[in-house]
Amino acid sequence: METSQAMNGAESLVKTLLASGVDTCFANPGTSEMHFVAALDRIPGMRCVLGLFEGVVTGAADGYARMADKPAATLLHCGPGLANGLANLHNARRAQTPVVNIIGDQATYHRPLDAPLTADTEGWARPVSVWTRTATRAASVGADAAAAVQAARAAPGGVASLILPSDVCWDAGGEVAAPLPPLAVPRVAPDAVRNAARVLRSGQPTLIVLAGSALREAPLADAHRIAAATQARLITPMSNARVSRGRGRLAVDRIPYSGDVARDRLAGIHNVILVGAPAPVTFFAYPGKSPRPYPEDAVVHVLAREEEDLADALARLADEVGARNAALPASAAVAHADIARGAVTSEAVARTLTALLPEQAIVVEESVSFGRAFYPGTVNAAPHDWLQLTGGAIGAGLPLATGAAVAAPGRRVVALQADGSGMYTLQSLWTMARERLDVTVVLLANRKYAILLGELADVGASPGKTALDMLDIGNPDLNWVQMANGMGVEGARAHDMEAFADLFRMANQRRGPFLIELVI
Predict the structure, then answer these.
(1) Which domains occur in the chain, in start order?
(2) What is the similarity comment for this entry (predicted)?
């Protein structure tokens, strides 16, 4: 442990984070964090990415960790700064993303005086965090930081929130802590494997629900072997942190957003086996309808909990049911697809994405209602990773794309972004421009909260002019090209599929960000 009376708490924090493998910080600092900011000048090695709104910062940290498989740090200003970032920390919690969430706060002796920014910072942090701690002295900051990194990385991953009063940052006596060893990932008990095998051998219609790390290539292949050997069906939750897909990879369907559609598709299922997933539930409740997307009398079994080793569990289950050598279904092998022409539809956009998506792209989807065909319609696209909004708090897409691009230089990021939710965090465009990130934003401009029109019908409401006006963002029309230009991002507008294809092809061949406003 490195100790120096000349080292302050902020310096020990930076050095400990770097020693623990955290070398990227998404930040929106304020006065309480100035000693951390100053320490970043004196200590090389930390990449600092500025966001103009805390929701950009927290969402970018989420996107970064999903692709880097390690946490980034955030830097937020006191309780209100944390509050501005809470929605995307909620999404990160649902995605089980490792984030080291650093929040500055009032000095320990200043807090009792109730200055204007004083807040229940710990109380606000706890619901989105797997670990929360307030540092109390400079000498403990390094050890607290090491513990935060260990907690964030513990399976399946989560937000670790470290609150730093400003005096523990500027006080001398900081100590650099050695990295803490990663916590062991628990293996599934043998009884759970045997029970799942028994269910699969029963001959009853069985659904296997895969989530988390089970959606990477190797465990997904084992799941397909199990399904091929036992006639089980595979599915994922509607929203997932990251899915490996495209040509040469094995496809898996998602549970539909609509409860009615999902219940029709899953009718007749007798057993549900969960692999890193909670028991599926519809997004919302509706009068007189089941909250489950599968039959109410289906029996739910747990092969592996989210914090357990999912890949190991699937491999052992494949052995248990004799599926290790089972023939895999043919993976998508279409080498070429034609671009769509004419009017802009969800299916047409999916077809063009299939034809033009760059190899090893990262697709970030927050397309909401218009994007219904995007996921199923791009199964034959070039190999890619697919990232989604996981917690339902809209405004994640552009920040996720920002963080993913920082984490994976050399891979093109394609953000499929609805206009209504894009307005929550459009400041992400400025960060993309500043960092020269290779992001193609496909801005889906239908100028309404279209998904809520469907929700009105589903809850049996009869909307009038006042209700419909609250779902309309087209009066006046948003001009996304001008907004992007104002933040340093080039852009252009497309009204038909031919123009979209030309712009999409061009954007993916250039360096830096580009926005396509696709009018739908």
Answers:
(1) 2-176 (3.40.50.970), 190-320 (3.40.50.1220), 346-519 (3.40.50.970)
(2) Belongs to the TPP enzyme family.
The pLDDT of residue 84 is 98
Of 81, 29, 53, residue with least CA distance to 424: 53
Interatomic CA distance for residues 55 and 409, integer angstroms? 22
Distances 216 to 100, 298, 375, 516 between C-alpha atoms, Å = 24, 27, 16, 30
Cα separation, 507 vs 496, whole angstroms:
17
What is the tens place of the pLDDT at every residue in 56-90?
999 999 999 999 999 999 999 999 999 999 999 99
Contacts of 431 (CB under 8 A, 6+ apart): 49, 50, 51, 52, 56, 60, 402, 437
Q: 53: helix, coil or strand? A: coil
What's the token pair of residue 436?
Answer: 């020269």
Region 6-30: mean pLDDT is 96
DSSP 413: E
**Hey, what are 43's tokens?**
């200590």
Q: Which residues pair with 275 in a beta bridge?
A: 210, 304
Q: Is the distance from CB of 398 to CB of 428 less than 8 angstroms?
A: yes
Q: Which single residue is written with the structure tokens 């103009």?
A: 52
**Pairwise pLDDT comparison (210 vs 474), residue with the higher score:** 210
Each residue's pLDDT tens digit, 170-192? 999 999 999 999 999 999 999 99
Q: What counts of helices (H) and strands (E) characterise the chain?
A: 20, 19
* Residues near 350 by beta carbon (within 8 Å), at least 6 away in sequence: 373, 374, 376, 377, 378
pLDDT of residue 464: 75
The type of residue at 484 is A
Number of neighbouring beta carbons within 10 Å of residue 410: 7
**Residues paired with 230 in a beta bridge:** none
Is this structure's pTM higher than 0.70?
yes
Give the rounded distance of the alpha carbon of 61 from its chain centre: 9
Of the listed ranges 148-162, 334-348, 360-374, the one predicted with least confidence: 334-348
Of 311, 313, 312, which is closest to residue 303 (Cα–Cα)?
A: 313
For residue 161, give the 3-state DSSP assignment.
Answer: strand
Instruction: Please report the pLDDT score of residue 319 as a whole number.
Output: 97
CB 508 within 8 A of CB 384: no
319-322 own/partner pairs: CB under 8 Å, 24+ apart: 320/193, 320/194, 320/196, 320/197, 321/197, 321/200, 321/201, 321/226, 321/229, 321/230, 322/229
Position 461 confidence tier, pLDDT thresholds 50, 70, 90: low
